[in-house]
Amino acid sequence: MLRILKFTAAFLGVAVAIFLLVYLLNRSSFHTLFENREDLTEGSEWVEKTYSLAGLADYIHLHPDRVSIASRVVNHPDSTLMFEADTPRAMGTLSNFLLLIAYEDAFQRGEMDPSGRISWEDISRHQLPGLDHSVHDESRQFALRNEMMNGDNQDLISLEDALQLLVRFNGLALSDYLLKALHSANLRMDDLIGRLNLDRTEAPLPFSGLYTLLAPSIQGVRADSLREKWQQASREEFEQAVWNHSSLFIDGPQRENWLQAMQQDRLGLTFREERDMLSLFPKTTAREMTQLLLQLYDDRLISESVSRSVKNYMRKPMEGQTAITRNFSDYGAFFDNRIGLLNGLDFGTSTYTGDTTVQAVFFDKLHIAVWFHMSSNHMHQDFQQRLIWDPALIKSMKN
Question: Phi then psi for 202, rounded to 5 degrees?
Answer without folding.
Answer: -95, 150
